[in-house]
Design goal:
alpha+beta, about 260 residues, 5 helices, four-stranded antiparallel β-sheet
Length: about 260
């Protein structure tokens, strides 16, 4: 996601001197805070902050029809709201292209990692539990992708599955956790000039020529998404992959602590 700014030259000059604003290293994250089960009315929920970026994610399960080619599996539907209160750049109304891209990138990593046991969402012939992941941006300061993945995964891992009895949805104390497996996280890199930056903030995103998001679990790259018109060299992509596998260890630890694993 790229926002307009007037300090692009300043940002490039700063990075050229080998530093970022506030002294953060090029390949370091800002402070991350992740909490699960913050919305009692939702099946699952999580709130995350990366620096000053803050997101709230809610999970809802609803009875629906399965896809014709997958009659015994649920569907995952991810949406994102870029709320005007989060940034002066966001406007009310239908989802913007940035919101659609954001939701798709988060969805792709979760889906490709197979976190949800889709077959356990089968109810009966022609009925499954469809899973809705709704992400709300409360404050924007860059790197929505990694924040969205962290909050989405934490919310899913703590989500409870309603009961379906006599044609009715029942939400009571008998609800157990959805069946899930593993943890996927993502690392997002911005290229500003010839510098590779992990976890770009708002001003860095405004100055970047290209963006790369890599989603992975401990062993496998699950998804990659490049944004904007700039490019990454093969060496830069390889470097980003190596960094992703290293940094994802800490990200998974953050998720595990939030969900009580």
């Amino acid at each position: 996601m790229q926002m307009k700014t007037n300090n692009e030259e300043y940002m490039k000059e700063l990075l050229g001197r080998g530093t970022r604003e506030y002294g953060r290293a090029f390949l370091d994250y800002r402070k991350i805070d992740l909490k699960a089960n913050v919305l009692p009315q939702a099946e699952g929920s999580a709130m995350v902050s990366i620096g000053n970026t803050m997101l709230l994610t809610g999970i809802k399960l609803a009875v629906g029809e399965p896809m014709k080619d997958k009659p015994y599996e649920s569907s995952l539907i991810t949406s994102a709201e870029l709320l005007p209160l989060a940034s002066s750049e966001f406007e009310a109304g239908p989802p913007s292209p940035s919101a659609v891209e954001f939701a798709r990138v988060v969805d792709r990593g979760i889906r490709a990692a197979g976190i949800i046991d889709s077959e356990s969402m089968f109810i009966e012939e022609g009925k499954v539990w469809n899973i809705y992941v709704d992400i709300y941006v409360l404050n924007f300061d860059g790197n929505l992708f990694d924040a969205g993945t962290l909050s989405g995964v934490a919310a899913l891992l703590t989500a409870k599955q309603p009961l379906y009895e006599n044609g009715e949805v029942v939400r009571d104390s008998r609800m157990g956790l959805m069946k899930t497996k593993g943890i996927v996280t993502s690392c997002t890199f911005a290229k500003v000039g010839d510098r590779l930056l992990l976890d770009p903030d708002r001003e860095e995103e405004a100055a970047m020529s290209s963006r790369l998001t890599i989603a992975n679990d401990p062993d496998v790259i699950r998804a990659m998404q490049k944004g904007l018109s700039g490019s990454f060299s093969p060496a830069e992509v390889e470097k980003a992959i190596d960094i992703t596998f290293e940094k994802s260890k800490d990200l998974r630890s953050i998720v595990k602590k939030a969900v009580g694993d």
